[in-house]
Amino acid sequence: MAAAAGEPEVIRDKAAMRAWSRRRRAEGRTVVLVPTMGFLHEGHLSLVSEAAATAGPIAVVVSIYVNPSQFAPTEDLATYPSDLAGDLRKLASTGAVHAVFNPPDLYVRGGTAVGASAGAAVSCLEAAVGGDGHETWIRVERLEKGLCGSSRPVFFRGVATVVAKLFNIVEPDVAVFGKKDYQQWRLICRMVRDLDFAIEIIGSEIVREADGLAMSSRNVHLSREEREKALSINRSLANARTAALNHSNSASEHIKKQIVQTLTEAGGQVDYVEIVEQESLVPVETIDRPVTICVAAFFGKILAVLVGDSPLEDG
Amino acid sequence: MAAAAGEPEVIRDKAAMRAWSRRRRAEGRTVVLVPTMGFLHEGHLSLVSEAAATAGPIAVVVSIYVNPSQFAPTEDLATYPSDLAGDLRKLASTGAVHAVFNPPDLYVRGGTAVGASAGAAVSCLEAAVGGDGHETWIRVERLEKGLCGSSRPVFFRGVATVVAKLFNIVEPDVAVFGKKDYQQWRLICRMVRDLDFAIEIIGSEIVREADGLAMSSRNVHLSREEREKALSINRSLANARTAALNHSNSASEHIKKQIVQTLTEAGGQVDYVEIVEQESLVPVETIDRPVTICVAAFFGKILAVLVGDSPLEDG
C-alpha cells in the first residue's frame, strides 16, 4: 500500500508532525514509525521495507534525529556522521516513505547550564541543560544494565526517553527497530509493555554487508584494515553457532572464551561477550535454550557493532 | 455539555478503556481524565466540575486506582481507605462523568519476587514484583526531590509512572489534577512537557472543609482531637500570608519559623515547611515574587495534607 508514497513530506515541527499523523489515522491508515539517527544505509532501508509490509492502508514516517541525551560527553556526538540530503534521496527512492520527521531539537533547554553533580554520569544533553530545562527520564532498570549499559551508563536512559518522546509526537500504531541493536530492541519492547503505549513493536533482522559485517552508520569511520579486523566478530559468532548447534560444548564460558580469543587475535579490544536469555538478557551458564550472543569490541577508536545471534533457534 | 452523562460506564479492562476513549474522540469529543485513588470527597468532585467545564463536546473519565508503586512498604497502602460503591454513587450524582476506569491491577507482576538491592528505596510494588515484572520508571529528577520527596523517596517515581500509564491507556486530551498536591501537579506538568504528551494539564484549586482543613481521603483517619490540631496548618498559613502581604517581614526563614512554632504548639510533628518558587519549587530566601508555602506535618499517625498557598499572588 506504500507504493504511492513518492517524495516524502519533510516535517520539522512537533505539532505539525502530530497533526499529520492524526490526519492519516483519521483516514483509516496505520501510522508506522521508523526511528533513526540518519546517515542511512541498507540496514535502515530494510527497516523501511519492514514498515512498508504492514498490512492495510499505511502511512510510514521515518524520523531522523541525532539524540544528544544518549551520548556521554566522552562519546562521538560531535563526529556522528550526517547527510540529510542523501538520506532524503534514499528514502524517496524507496517510494515507501510518506513523511520524514527531522526536528531541530527535541529537548527544552534551561536558562543556566549547570555542571553534573560529582560522580554522576551525564549525557551530552545535560552538559548543556540546566535551570528549568529537561529533567524527565525513563529508565528500564534491569534491561538497561549490563552489555552496552555497563560501559555506556546514560545510553539506554537517553534512548528510552527520546523514543517515548517520538512516540508521543508521532503517535504511531507500529514502530520498527533493528535487532542489530538487540538490547535496545528488547528494552523498547519492555518500556512499551510497562508504560502501556498502544504501539506494536516490530524487530527487524540484521542486515549485513556482502563481506558479513553488520551494517551500521559508524562503519564509515572504520579504516580498510580495521574493517577487515571487525569481520572477526561475525566469524567468531559463526564458529560459536556451529559449536552450539553441534553440542560439542554448550558451556557459555567455553564459547565466550573462544569468541574473545578470535576477536583479540584479530586486533580487537573486547568490550564484552555475553550469552544471554533472549527476553530478560540475563546471562546463561549453559546453552540449552534459545539464547543471544552479544558482542561488542573496539577496532581502532570505533566500538564495532553489537551483534546478536541465536544459535539454538533453528537447532 | 456533560449534563447528559447520567450513570457512568464502569470499565475495568485497559484495551476496553482505550477503545472507549478513541470512539469518543472519533465523535469529536474532548476526552478529559480525572485520576484518583478513590474514596472520593468534595475535593475530587470539584476536580470533576473542573473537568466538566472544559469547552465543547466532552467525555469525562474518572480513574479510580490505588497505585501500589507510590507507597513505600512502611506506608499505608494496606489501610488506604476505599469505597467503590460510594464513589460510583457520588460520581453518578454529578451527572458529569461518562466513564469510570477501575482496573484490577496496572502492573505486570514477575515470576519470582526478588528482594530490593541493599539500601535501595523500594515501593509496595517492587516488594511483590521480580523476574520479568514491571521495571520501567519515570523520574522527574529535580522536582521529585525535596518537599514530600525527601521523606518519601519512591512516591513521585510511582506517581509519574502510573500517570504516564493512565495517559497511555485513556489517551485523554485534558487531565485535571488538584493543587492540594502541589508538588505532584508541578511534576506532572513537567513530565508532560519533557515527554511531549499531547495533553493539557489543568490545576484545580484546593477545596476546604467548612472548618478550613484541606479535603483529603486520609482525613478520615484523623481523630476529632487530631483534626482540631491539624487545623493549625491552615491557621499558620493564613498568618504567614498576612505577614507576607503586609511586608512586615519577608524573610522566608522568619515566616517558616512562625509556621513551625504554630504547628508544634498545636501538637503536630513537622515534616517540612518550605517557601518555594512556584514552578521550579526551589526554596526562596526572600518573598519578593509569587511563591508557594508548602507544609506537611504529622498529627497522630497521619501525615496531614500538604497545603500550597501563594501569598503574593493577589498582593
Describe this structure in words.
Chains A, B: It catalyses: (R)-pantoate + beta-alanine + ATP = (R)-pantothenate + AMP + diphosphate + H(+). The structure is a homodimer of 315-residue chains. In chain A, 33% of the residues lie in helices and 19% in strands. With 315 residues, chain A is of the alpha/beta class. Chain A has 2 domains: 3-204, Rossmann fold; 217-307, Pantoate--beta-alanine Ligase, Chain: A,domain 2. In chain A, the strands form 2 sheets. Chain A has a 6-stranded parallel sheet, with helices on both faces. In chain A, strands 8-9-10 form a 3-stranded antiparallel sheet, with helices on one face. In chain A, α5 (155-170) packs across α6 (182-195) and α7 (224-245) runs antiparallel to α8. The radius of gyration of chain A is 20 Å and the shape is globular. The first copy, chain A, starts with 8 loop residues before the first strand and ends in an 8-residue tail after the last strand. Mean pLDDT of chain A is 87; it is low at 113-119 and 311-315. At the A-B interface, β5, α5 and α6 of A face β5, α5 and α6 of B. β5 of chain A pairs antiparallel with β5 (136-140) of chain B, so a sheet runs across the interface.
